[in-house]
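Notes from the 1:1 (GR / supervisor)

We went over the backlog. Supervisor wanted to see one worked example end to end before approving the batch request, so GR pasted a single chain during the call. The sequence is below; no edits were made to it. Supervisor asked that the structure be written out right there so they could see what the output format looks like.
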Amino acid sequence: MENLLLQRERLSISDMFFNHGGVIVGSKWWESDKEFQEHVHRCAKCFIDVNGLHEITPMMLVDDFMERL
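Structure output shown during the call:
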């Protein structure tokens, strides 16, 4: 089930985070899946803070990101 908090009219917060350049690199660069998920979580927290998106949680973005891989 898609989380509606990640969607905006004509703007997908989830798409923006998934494509949010250069900070997140492929999992092959990380020692473990856990380390990669922790990195994505840190990036999600920063993304939310910078964009003032406090109605969603970093885990919402992380879960969506990991599903897309």
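Supervisor's comment: The chain has a mean pLDDT of 79.
Batch request approved.
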